[in-house]
Each structure stands twice: as C-alpha cells, then as structure tokens.
Amino acid sequence: MSFGSPISPFDPDGEYWWSKGSSGLTQQISGVGHFLRGFRTRLRFGLLSREPLRLIRFQITDQIAECDWIARNQDVWDEDLAREIGRRHASLQALKDAIDVRSMLFEVLPDLATARLRVYRESNSHPRELIIAGNVRRQDGAFRSIHSLAMRAKLVGLRFCLENDLLCRLPREEKFGFGD
After folding, report:
1. Of the candidates 83, 87, 119, which has an alpha carbon nearest to the alpha carbon of residue 102?
2. Burial level of 22, CB count in 10 A (0-12/13-18/19+)?
3. Mean pLDDT across the chain
4. Between 25-41 and 83-108, two packed helices, what is the crossing angle to 10 degrees?
5. What is the gyration radius of the CA atoms in the chain, in angstroms?
6. 163 falls in which pLDDT band (50, 70, 90)?
7. What is the spatial distance between Cα 122 and Cα 42, in angstroms, rounded to a whole number?
8. Closest CA to 105 of 22, 174, 42, 148
9. pLDDT for 118-138, tens place per residue?
C-alpha cells in the first residue's frame, strides 16, 4: 500500500487497533503508570499518619518487581501524646502500607509474579534503617479475614521485628534475598 492510498494503513475495525501486534511492553508501561499514580493518590494519606510515603526505587525485570520506600513518620497530631503511642501508630501504619503496596502491585501489574519490598524509616537523629523487607508472591493470598495486621503482613511474606508494637531495625539486608 502506498502513502497515496485512500485506505488507512491501520485496521480501525478492532477496538484496540493501535496495540495489535505489540508485545506486553505497552501494557506493562501502562501498569507501571497506574502503580505510580496509585502510590501517590491511593496511598497519599494513611489512617494513623497523614505524612506521605516517599518512593525511593521502583524496578521491574521480567516478572519481578523491586520497590523501596520511606515509611511515614508519626503524625504531627500525635506529638501531644506519649512518644510511644506516636511511634506505635507509625509502625502500624508502615505495616498497613506495605500490605497495601503489595496488593496494588499485583492488581495493576497482572504479569507480575514476585515482588521484593523494602521499607525504610528515616529520622533526624538516625540514618535510614530497614524496618520491613519481604519477597511477596502473587499466589500467596491477601488474608483479608485475618484481623491482626502483623499476622497478615507475616502471612503475605513480609519480614519485620515488632517489639511492644514498635518496628525495630532489621539485621543486614543480605538475609532477605529471593528464595528465603
């Protein structure tokens, strides 16, 4: 067909004619866009802390994603409460956010099989420290019927150290490679 032909080189008969013959790359890029928008909008405010999440790194290779972010600090409204209460709220919010990020990843990226999540805590007095890590898989259920947030996080594959409802720094990252 030449450029002078009155017939369009595209086949507008199909509903998505513009994506025919393309690999899943277009769909994967679209899914990444949905994830990044969801990270900014759906996870913008937490229930126990209104601080925003800060994405550090997001990478996809084959069917594996890696996502690192900074957990929310305790809410400014918690400053008048006992220090432990504010830290407890921030810890519970970090667990909830990790479960929600896992759900959103598998929701918007249908070809994704596994994700490595790492959550860091940052404060003025301490350097960035790893508080939650995990290799989560799509095939593992969401366990929504489990009421304990910590138990649900453990069941979906997240690892953390919770003492008196406060997240503690995890040991060296090398212990949390794929296949744990």
Report:
1. 119
2. exposed
3. 78
4. 160
5. 21
6. very high
7. 22
8. 42
9. 999 987 777 889 999 999 998
